[in-house]
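Fold these two proteins, one after the other.
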Amino acid sequence: MRNLTVRRPHASAPEMPGRRRTAWLALLLAVPLVLTGCSGTGQASPTATKASTDAVTGTIAVVTHSTPGDNFWDVVKSGAEQAGADLGMNVTYQGDGDPVKQSQLIDAAIASKPAGLVISMANPDGVRSAVEKAVAAGIPVITINAGLEQSAEFGAETHVGQSEYIAGQGAGGELAKAGAKNVICVIHEAGNVSLEERCAGAADKLDKVTNLQVDIANIADAKNTISSMLLSDPTIDGVLTLNPGIAVAAAQAKAEAGSGAPLATFDVSADVTSLILDGSILFAVDQQPYSQGYLPVVFLTLQLRNGDVVGGGQPVYSGPGFVTKENAAKVAEFAAKGTR
């Protein structure tokens, strides 16, 4: 843009006629209006750029293996929907713990021709065909939470989550520091390979780990199962749960059984942070589910609007982190809002 040089009239110059004065004032008023349309480098203003990118919109479908009443997936859903609201994208969310039904939901999402798909894979083999069908249809796919090892093989662009085996090793190591040797690892979803990997990782750092199967859909029964296990084997000196709701049930089961075994869990909720603060739970392994919902929507939106493909074929780690008595109060502030 050419510089506009405004010359002041000499003090002794005669007064300008009315028509010239009007033109002079119009020119002065026009200068700031012209400048607002340009930056100092002559580029379009940020406002103009934002308007052009926001004009590119679409639907991102999220299909997970969530089950009703599982607070963890409520946080994932909140993250995805908030990202959609922040970016002006439409986000749909559906879930089913049965891999056959989840595959059907994925097929339905493919038929709607979304701008992108976000899929969790608790049972990778069970949803493989549906995921590969989405990739073959040219729909960008990002996997989250479960299925890290199979994500690239199935054609997904990246995976947002944590290495469950490494996270399990971290949990086992911390329990070992607390003196635990004989630990029960409570699995709340049958067939979920990610949960089994957590227990396997913990077993790598402990003398003995016994997997105990419960049902996330029946918390009361899960509590009774854990209590019975503790009563039947007094040598159990550690409990590792893999879900916040099951962690609360385990704390109650410990009290009923009179067990002093340290309790640790995966994932965070307002109840879990409270139990960490009062000493009932030693720590929680946090994979940050809000990020697992939020980040894929951001990544797919960037791809739609700017051609960016994030991850470089590698996973984007959202965890693990550890919530202990030292930082639980801060995390609790966010957990109370439903974002941790």
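Now the second one:
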Amino acid sequence: METKEVYGILFKPEIIDEKRVILVPYLIVDGITSENGLIDKYETSYKKFQLSDKINDYDNMYGFEISLEDLSDYYKANGYPKAHYDYPDVCAKSYLNFAKNYIFLLEKNNSLEDTICYAISLRDKSLRIVDIKKDLLTQLSTADKKDQNKTENTNLSLNYIDKPLRINPQILLEKITKRVIGQQDAAFQLIGTICKNLKYGNYDGMKSNILLYGPSGCGKTELVRSLAKELDIPLVIEDMTSYTASGYVGDSVKSILRRLFVNSGNDMSRAEKGIVVLDEIDKLASTDSRENVNKTDVQEELLKMMEGSKVNINDTNRTNQQLIMDTSNITFILCGAFTKLSEQKKSKKIIGFSNIDENEQNKLEIDNDEFIQYGLMTELIGRVPIKIPIKQLEIKDLADILWRSSISSLRIYETALLKEDNVKVVYANKPLFINTIAEKAHELGIGARGLKTVVDETFLEATSEIGASSTSKRVLFVSDRTIEDPSDYVLRKVKKGVYELPERIRESNK
């Protein structure tokens, strides 16, 4: 068997699916190569890479030789690194530093031999085709422009790539408050805390978990969901009413971390910087030991996760092996309405002060002792130093959501009808229409969720007729009376682009 002395570059494999594997440059070694692969000077053997359908085939690192001749030619042409000792060794390390600017996606087409390698730049996310078994320096430095940006065949999400964290909280705040209206203060606190957690991690205990409390339907989970989307970090939102302690019937709290791992694309490094939202946490509160011992047990198990520990989770999606997740840098956000506590606090405020500010009534701060008396463990409350109140949405806030939110139910209907059915919605008096919806939604007492309920009911009969009729350009005339009587609308074809209000719609505008 022929062998030769070479340098080698090692890659760590990361599986996407049965057709695609990521190779991440990891280490330079010196040793020998043979038909079976690369052997370093410590006699560790590394395989040559070939795509396989067997997941277990990717447990080891893979190595490819680096031609000293190619290295020498490249640095002769481009200039040697600034070092005065062993140039082959210095050049090999420079080669690795160059390669670390890329990750390499191997994609199998019709057969194991029919494989394409894409080099993906971590700097600008450009993409080009290379031969992983040939000199990468020359290929990547002289690659043809036509091979760049060929992403149509990869369907590859680059979310897992570690990149420097450059976050502008002010820009984030502007984006988030376009979706979640009326919670400016809460959004500011939430963004500041999560950005700090992401930037510094748990350095000397800097990470802070969060408690979001306030009325249902006022934006608690939407704030977090929007922020996670903007920051492109994995998120899991879990309803805690279905969770039980280990050994009981129901979901174990460990399954929360397993879902976070899945939502991160099975990338443990991303999962360990993700966000876990424990919704309806107030349902786990109990002041009566006879009521439900299990509630306290679940709080204790959550406490262990939130303290920052290494937890074994079962990777059911791939090899069914035990994986270890470090929760030290995961941000845990507890969410709950705490309705009874808020009502008690509000009634005391109203009795004590006759001229209390409306904003103070809608956003009442609750202290640690009150949460503990409500039934949450002292230790659990101690692990959430940041407590952010969510204010009650009033009629004006609900109207603002319909006017300004990028996820306004009314805007969604307008866009969908125009795009899918070629129907333009025209209002007899839009301010009156929106205020009427806001008033009716406020009566339901379920916050912003009430808006969707009222809007759905308002357009129910109209959308039924639209779906059953022609697809020519039409206009849907509605008024505030349509909200009370969904059959009170007019649907007609457009004539010469002029939207003339029908008489009965005009009457409601008087």
